[in-house]
Fold this protein.
Amino acid sequence: MSNTLMDTNFRFPGQKAVYKGKVREVYTLENDILVMIATDRLSAFDVVMPKGIPYKGQILNQIATKMMKATEDIVPNWLMETPDPNVAVGKACDPFKVEMVIRGYLSGHAAREYKAGKRILCGVPMPEGMKENDKFPEPIITPATKAEQGDHDEDISREEILERGIVSPEDYGILEQYTKALFQRGTELAAQRGLILVDTKYEFGKTKEGEIVLIDEIHTPDSSRYFYAEGYAELQAKGEPQKQLSKEFVRQWLIANGFQGLEGQVLPEMGDGYIESVSERYIELYESITGETFERADVSDIQERIGTNVSAYLATLS
């Protein structure tokens, strides 16, 4: 097993605060600089698995970086530089308290809700007579927000977001516009690689100058779901599952082993063989979506590597 990055504890020059999310750790520095480190942690059903996935953080960071650069002509983003395979450095923003989820197909959470008999998701109607993984007539935006208690994501409608004053009507209009534009570009990029971008989520923030920018990750296997375009129609016609490139396969493995993050359920143990297979799936997605061979970074001492690379970059800013 390769070494994995499960936790960090850096003291960068000018450091003011640290936020540790389910997967990423964000260091806030002076001069409105953020250092975002993608760890190898894996979360599913809002639970962080006890073992890391080799190279996962590098994969997420590098895909997100490539996708930020491939979309910066249509939507501004927070990114300044990636001084290390696991690290992105960018402008500090005040994040909007909603995730902009957009779905082109009836899959994942939407399919589970549909199967339970629901035909409205986040205030958006879903047509009758759909099968799992069918394409929606038009992509639908189904936002999520953090629950008031705990770290769980909750479905929320556009109307409720505006009613509760979570986002202003003017800003929300821009978030919707950016979400549709990014999904369209992501769909085109995926099609060039023989993939279908099924659904994804985007997060946005506002800079101190008042500009709305894309933040966090974009079009990664943690934030998105992909199908292979070849064979999609045939599998749908037969009612068979699609081959997915996303972490949905981890969720399905957990469900099959009796875990959906519900109270009283016991997290099944992931053996080393299964963890290696998950790592290989992440590498497969990286190579499929970028068209490039994945180059494994030196993991002999990930912490030292990150500390050295980030410190060297920050020195160029002073």
In short: DSSP finds eight helices and 18 strands in the chain. Residues 169-192 form the longest helix (24 residues). The two ends are 39 Å apart (CA to CA).
